[in-house]
């Protein structure tokens, strides 16, 4: 562990975005869910409030609420400015504008901040990071990871992806990853190789369309389950 706070750029997505990004059904939402790299997302707080069972894992959770709030405040405008500079790479329909994006993200992060201390006491927010998870085999039904694997293909090797996926498959019956694009909007070169290697290990690895597209072309997830 020991990731420095000033290297983390917290950017939280909403419960509704999680449902759409991962094609989560009402039945899925009753299962035991692990979110890997959730950051300051609103998903855990909202699903817990609905009576769901969810644990989030992120290096951000080593810090306290005020440290995280300060880091959000320090990076928020920079992130919005980056999106504004690359606005043609995004689909502005559900989220119609930069202002709307800022509102959705800040609202999700406020939902997270209001829940964080109680959630940390309840072991719903655990400091840690891929590729190795601090959970027993089969603890979860579904493990989710958004905007980390594949997105950072330029920084994370194929071996890192396989190690992370194998550990997610150890602790959960099914894994869903979103998106399948890199930061620059191209299909990740790791995807076909990951599918091939996991298939060879006896897993079922498939690409599925989802009802979500904000990064242009980012409307599919990888679903991996035991064969």
TrEMBL record:
SUPFAM superfamilies: S-adenosyl-L-methionine-dependent methyltransferases (SSF53335). InterPro entries: SAM-dependent_MTases_sf. This is SAM-dependent methyltransferase. It comes from Nitrospira lenta.
């Amino acid at each position: 562990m020991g990731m420095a706070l000033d290297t983390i750029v917290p950017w939280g997505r909403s419960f509704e975005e999680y449902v759409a990004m991962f094609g989560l059904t009402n039945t899925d939402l009753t299962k035991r869910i692990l979110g890997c790299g959730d950051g300051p997302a609103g998903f855990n707080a909202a699903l817990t409030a609905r009576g769901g069972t969810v644990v989030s894992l992120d290096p951000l959770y080593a810090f306290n609420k005020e440290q995280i709030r300060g880091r959000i405040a320090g990076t928020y405008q920079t992130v919005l400015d980056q999106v504004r500079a690359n606005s043609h790479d995004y689909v502005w329909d559900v989220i119609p504008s930069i202002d709307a994006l800022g509102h959705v993200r800040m609202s999700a992060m406020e939902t997270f901040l209001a829940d964080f201390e109680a959630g940390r006491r309840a072991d719903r927010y655990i400091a840690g990071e891929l590729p190795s998870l601090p959970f027993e085999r089969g603890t979860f039904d579904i493990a989710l990871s958004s905007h980390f694997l594949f997105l950072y293909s330029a920084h994370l090797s194929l071996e890192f992806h396989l190690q992370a996926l194998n550990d997610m498959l150890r602790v959960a019956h099914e894994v869903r990853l979103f998106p399948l694009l890199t930061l620059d909007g191209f299909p990740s070169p790791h995807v076909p190789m990951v599918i091939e290697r996991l298939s060879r290990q006896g897993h079922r690895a498939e690409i599925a369309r989802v009802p979500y597209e904000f990064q242009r072309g980012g409307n599919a997830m990888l679903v991996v389950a035991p064969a």
